[in-house]
Amino acid sequence: QYQLVESGGGLVQPGGSLRLSCAASGFTLHYYSMTWFRQAPGKEREGVACISTSDDITYYADSVKGRFTISRDNAKSTVYLQMNSLKPEDTAVYYCAADFLPYSTTCKLVEDAMNYWGKGTPVTVSS
Known about the structure:
By secondary structure, the chain is mainly beta. Helix content is 0%, strand content 48%. The chain has strands at 3-7, 10-12, 18-25, 32-39, 46-51, 58-60, 68-73, 78-83, 92-100, 116-117, 121-125. Strands 2, 4, 5, 6, 9, 10 and 11 form a 7-stranded mixed β-sheet that branches. The chain is globular, with a radius of gyration of 14 Å. It starts with a strand and ends with a strand.
């Protein structure tokens, strides 16, 4: 049975950094592109970063470009989201999701494309 487990969330001051991890099990990670989503209170869930299965091509939402970095370690079946220069508007529950897309240089920031989801980790940016 597949499982995605996020960790690394917490409380951080504005301007600070956090690194989120997403540990995958029950499926072969390297066949899946991976996307990080977030959902802030009272808002819809949005895709913020994704990484492809081939060549580790990455895409970012404009709101996080230059501040967030997604990466993957297939040997450890883990995907990461390094978040720097955090702002209060980054406060949200962060989810990782997997999209079966082998041998591809693309990935998606769209919810409907995802096959598997984690349960999320909360991030609060506040002084």
